[in-house]
Amino acid sequence: MSDSGAHNIRTPDQQVRVFVSSTLQELADERAAVREAILQLHLAPVLFELGARPHPPRDLYRAYLDQSHIFIGIYWQKYGWVAPGETISGLEDEYRLSGDKPKLIYIKSPAPDREPRLKELLDRIRSDDTVSYKPFASATELRGLIENDLMLLLTERFDSHADRSLPTGTVTFLFTDIEGSTDLAQQYPDALPALLARHHAILHQALETHHGFVFQIIGDSFHVAFHTAPDAFNAALDAQRLLDQEDWAPAPIKVRMGINTGAAQTTSNEDRSGGYTGYSTLARVQRVMSTAYGGQVLLSNTSAELVRGELPSAVTLRDMGEHRLKGLLNLEHLWQIVVPDLPADFPPLDTLDVSPNNLPIQLTSFVGREREMAEAKQLLSTARLLTLIGPGGTGKTRLALQLSAELLPSFAKGAWLVELAPLTDPTLILQTIVSMFDLREIPNVPLINLVTDYLLTKHLLLVLDNCEHLIEACGQLIDHLLRACPHLKVIASSREALGIAGEAIYRVPSLSLPDSAQLTPEALTRCESVQLFIERAVAIQPHFVLNVRNAPAIAQICQRLDGIPLALELAAARIPIFSPEQIALRLDDRFRLLTGGSRTALPRQQTLRALIDWSYDLLSESERVLLRRLSVFAGGWTYAAAEAIGSDLDVLNSLTHLVNKSLVVTDESTEAGEARYRLLETIRQYARDR
């Protein structure tokens, strides 16, 4: 660090090196304990057992410090010897020269005779907020502290990512997890810290070699991002080889791994996601990994296609077939890495293919909704009927399907979807259920009895989608089935609640909207409505990107469309012919602009106007008149204001029905204790045009 001669001194190993600074005689027992702790974790201790005090040759300890990765300082009462011609002791000099290395500082107490200069040094150390500073009373306690702190420190990277760009856009993720780690913790509590530390060191070695970015570690699970699929593939292969070659004792460490490639955006490191958003991509790699066994590496079909032409010599991909993974509606074609020097034969994959269901495969990603999923699950855990309500296009159906897929393992007889949107006759509901379960009709036996007998003892989840136009018949049927079938649970989606006993109601909100004060691309990617718009736009126009120029326009689109998923998808469909700026300018005529939805969708989901027509046509005439009149309020209104413009109407009942049917939003009470109401901008513009 000072002159060139110092750099010729080399430590005799290539392990992670831990420099230990302390006085010698008064802390002899502690130094021995520290050495044992470091060796236990398969790290290299750097201690000056001879000649450490009095002051060692400066070039020597400077060179050793320069080549060490971690600094440990142990202090008690002595400040240490100050060599002739020096103004500070070697103890303080070592601390100063530790630079920006991770520092673990341990102070022994009590210390009734602590020297004044050591007190001054410790005061300066305490003021350094980058230092870990802990007291201890014995060598045994110190060893435990150091083992735990070093193991935690090893979960962090020693080099900064600041000088390398994190992968974003299309990212390949590698997730890992130790198989049976809970059992290991119970059977080998004393040995587990050393096993985990070695596991962490091996993974870091393989991941660093192949340019991986460890963006999150949860327990023993690593979440890693790569710019390319081959890098992730080779990192997983090297890691499994190193893990297989390790002489584990007292128990082997078996790690399962999963790889998936897809759309993802970087976020703040403080974000709960660990640094990335892209629910579909991250959820898929998590499920792929969870399906594997210890020692097995599985790839999604997307990643497999990207590495197929770059496989190392003697390495092949084994076709594991298509599988339904927990929480995912789409089937996933899985592939296993097979290499001669590693185990290749494992039990059948633990997937959901044995769970009966008729849930449709989704062809687009499920974006955001982490909070809604958690809240809906909580409600259904204590209720047997959960009704998802909200305006048209807010994603009630998609949320119901995703929720059903994630809950599928909890129901022995599966999850079954009854699509009610195409039905116009209430009597066809039972007929649809009979056909779905392939039940054979019996002469003179009512269909309700046939369905009830079939469901009587089954642990089953029934999903009734789009109940609003058959609301009374759906309510009566569900009420009967829940009373007769004790193990049945029901998820219903509707624009209004069913209004029966035991119903838990969850109002599905729009996707989260961007903050007008934070319109940077980085801030916008944390917003669900923006994520959906970008993902759908990229699916249509692969080269589309969110950037500084178009960020304000995309934020405006999401805000003016109220975060309604279907409206955002229809807007994204215009990306091939309009820029985001042009789309934003045309939103004053949104019902003309937002057409051309999927040809396979229901007619009412192909245009924004048709979507709201469906709700409007279900209103009574009094409700329609009031809705049109309420559109004059751009900033919301009070009940008194509604009465003023509807003096000839039954405002109380009509407004209540508009709220219940998800067309009017009730805001929190004002300071005066008076509730306020408002229309989503899209609903207001529709009602104004009528």
Description:
- The chain has 690 residues and is of the alpha/beta class.
- It has 26 helices and 21 strands.
- Strand 1 (17-21), helix 1 (28-40) and strand 2 form a beta-alpha-beta unit.
- The chain starts with 16 loop residues before the first strand and ends with a helix.
- The model is unreliable at 1-14, 50-56, 157-163 and 269-273 (pLDDT under 50).
Query: Which ranges are low-confidence, i.e. pLDDT below 50, for 5 or more consecutive residues?
Result: 1-14, 50-56, 157-163, 269-273
Radius of gyration: 32 Å
Count every beta strand, where a strand is a DSSP E run of 2 or more residues: 21
Number of helices: 26
**Structural classification:** alpha/beta
Broad shape: elongated
| Share of helical residues | 25-40%
How much β-strand is present in the residues?
A: 15-25%
Largest sheet: 8 strands, mixed
Cα(first) to Cα(last) distance is 78 Å
Q: What is the typical, i.e. mean, pLDDT? A: 85
Task: Itemize the secondary structure elements and their pairings.
Blueprint: E1 17-21, H1 28-40, E2 44-46, H2 58-66, E3 70-75, H3 90-97, E4 103-108, H4 116-126, E5 131-136, H5 139-153, E6 169-178, H6 181-187, H7 192-209, E7 213-218, E8 221-226, H8 229-245, E9 255-266, E10 276-277, H9 279-291, E11 297-299, H10 301-307, E12 316-324, E13 331-338, H11 370-382, E14 385-389, H12 396-407, E15 415-419, H13 428-436, H14 447-455, E16 460-465, H15 471-484, E17 488-494, E18 503-507, H16 521-524, H17 528-540, H18 551-560, H19 565-572, H20 580-585, H21 590-593, H22 608-617, H23 621-630, E19 637-638, H24 639-645, H25 651-660, E20 665-667, E21 676-678, H26 681-689
Parallel strand pairs: 1-2, 1-3, 3-4, 4-5, 9-11, 14-17, 14-18, 15-16, 16-17
Antiparallel strand pairs: 6-8, 6-9, 7-8, 9-10, 11-13, 12-13, 19-21, 20-21
